[in-house]
Every structure is written in C-alpha cells, then in structure tokens.
Amino acid sequence: MEVLDIARWQFGITTVYHFMLVPLTLGLGMTIAIMQSIWVRTGDEKFLRMVKFWGKLYLINFILGVATGLVQEFQFGMAWSEYSRFVGDVFGAPLALEGLLAFFAESTFLGIWIFGWGRLRKSLHLAALWCAVVGSWASAYFIIVANSWMQHPVGVELVDGRPVMTDIWAVLTNSTALAAVTHTLFGALIVAGMFLIGISWYHLWQRRRDGIDTVVPVPPGERRAGLIRRLTDASTRVIVGEAPGVPGRDRADHGVWLWSLRFGAVMAIVAFAGTGLTGDWQAKLMYEQQPMKMASAEAACHTGSSFSILSLGDPGSTDCSDVVTLIEIPGALGFLATGEWGADMPGISDLEPQYQNQYGETIPDDELYGSFAGSEVQYVPPMWVTYWGFRLMIGLGGITAFGALVALWLTRGGTVPRSPWIMRLAILGILAPFAGNIAGWIFTEIGRQPFVVAPNPDPSGIDGVFMFTAAAVSPGVTAGEMLFSVITLTAVYAVLMVVELFLLVKYVRGGVASAMPELAPAHRDGDGGDDDASDDVDGDRDRRDDVLAFAY
Questions:
Q1: HSE-up (13 A, CA, CB side) for residue 363
Q2: Residue-wise pLDDT tens digits, 154-211
Q3: Using N-to-C axis directions, what is the helix angle for 45-78 and 251-289, rounded to 10°?
Q4: Which of 85, 193, 450, 516 could form a disulfide with 268 if both were Cys (CB 3.0 to 4.6 A apart)?
C-alpha cells in the first residue's frame, strides 16, 4: 500500500473511534444539566438520582473521549505535515480557541462540578455544570469551524501558494460551519436520547422480571371518555413496588427510569426533526459548494431532477456506466437542492469535465506529490460510500425517531412490556444513532476527495485555495512507519474500547446505587454482620466520601 492510503486509514480509524464518544458527551451533558436544573428547582429526589447515575456514565465517556482526541492533533504533524503547513495560518485561530478557551473552560468547570457536591451552593454547583456543557458545545463549534473551512475555504487570500487568514469573522461564520454544527448537535441529542431509552428500558424490564413492579388491567369504567383518550390510554397500569434490602430498588427508582426513558424519547424525536431541517440546509449548501459530492451521494450521473431511492452499481467503481437506477422520484432532487420542484441539477458526467478543465486532468508534476505526480485525478468519489453513507445517515435517523415514538406508546401504562426480546431491541437501538452519526461523518469526508481542502466554486471566492490529498501527507514518512503506527494505534484504541464498555456495563448494571453509595446501608467494621449486605455495587466499602465515589 502507498503511504497516502495508510495515512488515510490511520486518520479514519482514529477519527471514527473518537467521534463515537463525542456525540454522547455533547448530548448527555446537556441532558444532565437539564435534569439537575429540575432537581434544584423542585427538590425531587428522583432527579438527583438521575443526575448522579447519568453523570457517572457521562464522566466515563468524557475521559475516554479526551484520551482518544489527543491523538488527532499529533497526526497533523506526524502523518500530514504538508497539510499542516498549508492550513496552519487558518487553523491556528479556531484550534487555539478550542484548546485555550473552550476545552479549558469545559474541563475546569467539570472539575468544579465533580468535586463540588456538598461543598457549593446548589445554584453555583448547577452553574458550573452549565458552564462545562456550554464549553463542550463551544469546543465542538471551533473544531467544526476548522473542518468546515476545508469543505468551503473563506476569509483568506493566497500568499506564496499558501492561504493566509484575512477575515476571522468570515471563518467563524462560514455558512458551512453554521449548518454543520447545528446538525452535529442535534445528532448528539439523538444519541443521548436513545442512550437513555435503552438503559432505562433495561432497568424497568428488570424490575418487572424481579417482581418489584406488577401490571394490572384498568377497569373499563375508569378509562377516560373520548376517542383519542381511549386510543392513547393504556389498558393496564403499573403497581410500583420496592425490594427491601436491595440498595436503590425502591419506588423512587421506578420514577428515575420511567422519567429518563420518556425524556430521552421526546428529546430524540425533537432532535430528529432538527437534524432533518439542518440536513436540508447542508444539502443545499453542498450543491452550491461541492456539487460533485452531492451528485455522487445521489448517484446522479446525468443532469436532471430525479431523486434516486435505490441505485445499484459496482462498489469498486466510480464509472457512471456501472450505475443502474431502480427506483426514483421525478423532480424531487431539484426540490431538495434548491427548493424548486423539477429544477435540473448538474450530474457527474457534466461536472467531471468542469473539474478537469479548472483543476487539471492530472496531478501536477511536482516533487511534493511524490509517486502521485503526473497521475490522473479521480474527481468522482467512491459512489458506493457516498450513496449508501448518505442513506444510512438518514435511514438510521428515521429508525431512531420511530423507535422513540414506539417507546412512548409502549410505556404509556407506566412501565415496559415484559418481553425480553423488546428489551434487547431497545438496548440494540442505542447503536442506531451512533452508526448514523458515523455514516454521515464518513460521507462528508470521503465525498470531499480528491481534495483535502476543497476549492470554493463561488465566483467571489479566492482562486487557487485548494489542496489535493496526495500532497498533504508527510513526505519523510515511510510506508512501514505508517503501518506500524496504524497497527499500534488500532491496538491501543481496541484496549480503550474494552475499558470503556467494561466500565459502562458495570455501572449500568449497578443502577443508581452504583453512583450513589449512600443508598446502601453503611458498613460497620468488626460488628460481625453480613459484609455482603453492606457492600455496594462498586465494591467500595468506604461510603464516607460520596464525592470521590461519584467522581471515580
């Protein structure tokens, strides 16, 4: 394999892994902040329990996210030094703002929140959490600003072959960035919503399995009048019980999981609507800024307005002659791209000659490109990746929203069905928005090829601000060195994944008691009592410091 191919695999593996952690951190942080706000306002214990439990999982994910994110910036210098030289004058500002402002604020206030339990007033403690959450969202914004400049370079001028920033405000308010950040944040809320649904469903199901909660039929005379009310009312209702001697398995525990499930379901549905609106905005921008990417995503080989629902072709080919459209909607593509039904959109066969005329048919004969110099430029990205990545992103989002609606319907009686298969499906549903986010990210990055910095086709843009991916890789790195780094990083990330899953599963199974040791009876040394009865789920026998127990 060429050094370039290995470098792209390395960045792809580390970025996709890191991005699995990012949306959960962004979405779950906002969720916990809302829960704690309700607790501070109402004093309801179940909301405190929710904050402690979901906060424990949030911290685990946050720590692993930081560990995996550090590798990203090191790769700019190790594997992509030429890219770093080209974009350095532009990337310096948003990356500095992310590291010195957003991440610093996020980590500082998160530390105050972790160790501030019982030491700060409730209002100040809550403010620290909100500052941490705002910091994490600001961090995401600055990172997306940098990435969006690669998709649509603005606010620069070309000096000695390198872009130099002339307008920081244009970079920060790049239309591509504004659309991408809102789309990403809504996607993160979907991830958090399904995370709440799956785990809460498991605990409600476990309470039913253990006989703590029972379900009885609702007498016909007690059902509400009216057709809509009869349709939406459950024919059964739950009788909430307690499990004496089991830490945290009381009536309040039922409220924790039921409220969390419904909150997650509503959030997932609302966020899906948000991703639809922002995704439409992004698609329209892509047709203007990166028409080849969107034409490839729609398998639009020829100029027209038909939207492909199902097209098939050779996965290894970028030749339109291999594409066969089986199902399409006439006129829909023009509406999606411009808002006008039936408007013609340029297809691959028309766009490719334009790219060749403007940027050349071959890679420039320059030592910077190494063995790629003089080779033919393939302006059509792998269509099977862009086409199916685009549809997976949308399809999995739709499945998530449908699953959230079903969850609301099935729990209208106050608990979940006793079927273990539905419980397993709810847990499996946690993966759907993760996969959808990853599919969308892969589509965005693969579709930009063969550019690492895509040209700005806007007539008011700066000519010459683009960079072929073949020129971005570090010239002094050998294929062997790159392969060693890929294998090493993949192995390290695999270990981190095992650690992440082990910790999450451990504390999920432990329930609220795993995050609140004070719910269990205190252990009394030397009293001859039953040690097992006083041990909490963590196995932590010292319950005097709830702050440290919660933090770690």
A1: 21
A2: 999 988 888 999 999 999 999 999 999 999 999 999 999 999 999 999 999 999 998 8
A3: 40
A4: 193
